[in-house]
Amino acid sequence: MLDWAGASQASISFITERGCRLYSEDFYQLLDMHFGPGDWYAAQQDPVRAARFLEHALECPPAGFDAALLWDMLEYLAPPLLEAVLARLYQVVKRGGYMLAIFHADERVERVPVYRYRIGSADTLWLSPRDMRRPAQLFNNRAIEKLFREAQSLKFFLTRDHLREVIVRR
Q1: Distance separating alpha carbons of residues 23 and 133, to the nearest angstrom
Q2: How far apart are CA 3 and CA 9, in angstroms?
Q3: Is the pLDDT of residue 107 over 80?
Q4: What's the domain range around 71?
Q5: d(CA 116, CA 80)
Q6: Which pLDDT score, from 0 to 100, does residue 81 have?
Q7: pLDDT at 29 over 80
Q8: How many domains does the chain have?
């Protein structure tokens, strides 16, 4: 399983106790390292920086993962980089595998909280705010369907925290 929230003992314990191996990467930190400081989204337009980011962030074997926890990270990718990241995800997540993505449901906000996610138990997910940031773009259900147009299926859930959880079957 690929987890973009960064390593946390709670998530590691939860996932490994179920017999899964986990590869954890703090995707937000990688974005900041490759595209900050300054305007992340302008920096993501630079093809050289984007290529270095992809090599570092998704240097994984083809079909190496059964599942990926993407959390809210897709909202912080400018459109060209977002397409490249999704193409790479489709390579590294096995056909029939699952991806979990989260999107902010309020489409009129200027800045949204960036969360650090930790799995507490089968029915508990801890969200810790780590920053406030303007998303590259906000997604409604139709935009999410278009984003994952190559997926076998999508399931949408709206949380009480005004987040859309989307389970994608590759």
Answers
A1: 26
A2: 13
A3: no
A4: 2-169
A5: 25
A6: 95
A7: yes
A8: 1
For 77, phi and psi rounded to 5 degrees? -115, 130
Query: At 113, which CATH number?
Result: 3.40.50
29/93 Cα distance (integer angstroms):
22
Give the whole-angstrom CA distance, residue 136 versus residue 1.
26
DSSP per residue, 138-150: ---HHHHHHHTTT
Give the residue among 77, 63, 52 at the shortest CA–CA distance from 138: 77
What residues have CB less than 8 Å from 33, skipping those under 6 apart?
none
**3-state DSSP helix/strand/coil percent for the chain, to nearest 5?**
35, 35, 30
Question: Rounded to two decimals, what is the model's pTM?
Answer: 0.91
CB 24 within 8 A of CB 57: no
Whole-number Å distance between alpha carbons of 40 and 138: 16
Q: Which residue has the tokens 């935009």?
A: 143
Q: List pLDDT tens digits, range 45-58.
A: 999 999 999 988 88
Q: Exposed (0-12), middle (13-18) or buried (19+): which is 158, by Cβ within 10 Å?
A: exposed
Token couple for 120? 């507490």
